Amino acid sequence: MRLKPQQTGYVATKIGIDLANAPFITLPKGREAVVEAAKKIIDENLAKERALDEKVKHILDENYDEIEFQHADERQLFFMIKKKMAPEYGVIMNYDDRFNDLAHLILDELYENYLAEYTVNENQVKNVIFKSFKAFADAFDEIDDIVYNKIRNMEKEVIPGSQDYELLYERLYQEELAKRGML
Prior knowledge:
Elements: H1 8-21, E1 25-26, H2 31-62, H3 64-70, H4 74-89, H5 95-112, E2 117-118, H6 122-152, H7 163-179
Antiparallel strand pairs: 1-2
Pfam families: DUF507
Protein name: Competence protein
């Protein structure tokens, strides 16, 4: 699941909650410090991917005439170019590998800044962080469907893409996250 910029806070909060609830971890500076550190790392990772996406779009734009002449599938070309250039930008394309890498980076940040203390092997702590990513990714599609259906079944019609729709979607999305203990 590809994270969107507005979701990084939710994932970071989930990580903070899961670490705070783990019996073998203490958070000397509190959960909010952990959430802030995790969000910063996730945001930096997404910024790398956005830079890569922009470069790929630029390449496609520069070669638009040739792409049209060859009747090439732009989406497929985008993915192929992105995959080839990903290592150069430090982007991991496989999401499980990416979540694992982010878990390591977050763990390193927590350790170096005395944000987490633990009495177990580092891998156990990293696994808590990794499972937070996986839990969010697994829940996202389900929550998205629930929120979409709630909006669709409302008496008052809300137009997708409008500001009212976006605000309503965000409020309902947060309610569903809260119900699941992810906020």
